[in-house]
């Protein structure tokens, strides 16, 4: 018996605006993600990656097609999905301490304060920030702030984590550390992951499948399987022939498309 997908996208289209000045961002996208798997989405600038991710989170309603999470068409961000955006400086509340930022999504769940605190501290420990709980976001480096944003997405124990260019605003070493953090979270929690990225290396390193989008209006040019063993390592994995071949294949697809 085949397992039903955790995320299924069928005939997705999105057009911004109406009439002569409207813009078709997404022409036709279909894919499915199985539970516990990780998918990267790459494509040229302006391909519609952010538009696609907003449709997956339910933040915008697509003008055509459907997005289903665990078999149900989504409207608004469903329970069970965590989201991490690129711009951590705008997504964290500067007037709340780190631990209060992380527990924020639990407030509407009606949990007692001590339980909210316990879960927030657990999520902070997963991202290696136990010591920063009482600080404020503006007292932390960019990479640490993005760890807080990841902890906040994890605190609800999501079954699917959606990330939009999550590491585009941090330096290369921090980026590598955060990529390894995502791999560790996945190994520990079996959370399914979709990550949108500009970076071909990152797309291969983080995922089991890479969805390569064409330029706007986007469609799926190719679905590339990433056949690399776990655990992955920034040095050893990136030396493997399979890694280099997959990376070259995606590069050619994007630059030919
Ligand atoms: N709110 C909007 N109204 C009108 N057009 C929009 C809107 N948001 C995005 N677009 C257009 O839709 C297309 C896809 O944009 P989107 O931001 O999804 O692409 P992207 O692949 O994420 O780009 P980048 O890689 O540069 O971040 C672009 O041509 C963009 O100008």
TrEMBL record:
<protein>
    <submittedName>
        <fullName>Nitrate ABC transporter ATP-binding protein</fullName>
    </submittedName>
</protein>
<feature type="domain" description="ABC transporter">
    <location>
        <begin position="7"/>
        <end position="240"/>
    </location>
</feature>
<dbReference type="InterPro" id="IPR027417">
    <property type="entry name" value="P-loop_NTPase"/>
</dbReference>
<keyword id="KW-0813">Transport</keyword>
<keyword id="KW-0547">Nucleotide-binding</keyword>
<dbReference type="InterPro" id="IPR003439">
    <property type="entry name" value="ABC_transporter-like_ATP-bd"/>
</dbReference>
<dbReference type="GO" id="GO:0005524">
    <property type="term" value="F:ATP binding"/>
</dbReference>
<dbReference type="Pfam" id="PF00005">
    <property type="entry name" value="ABC_tran"/>
</dbReference>
<dbReference type="InterPro" id="IPR003593">
    <property type="entry name" value="AAA+_ATPase"/>
</dbReference>
<dbReference type="InterPro" id="IPR017871">
    <property type="entry name" value="ABC_transporter-like_CS"/>
</dbReference>
<dbReference type="GO" id="GO:0016887">
    <property type="term" value="F:ATP hydrolysis activity"/>
</dbReference>
<dbReference type="InterPro" id="IPR050166">
    <property type="entry name" value="ABC_transporter_ATP-bind"/>
</dbReference>
<keyword id="KW-0067">ATP-binding</keyword>
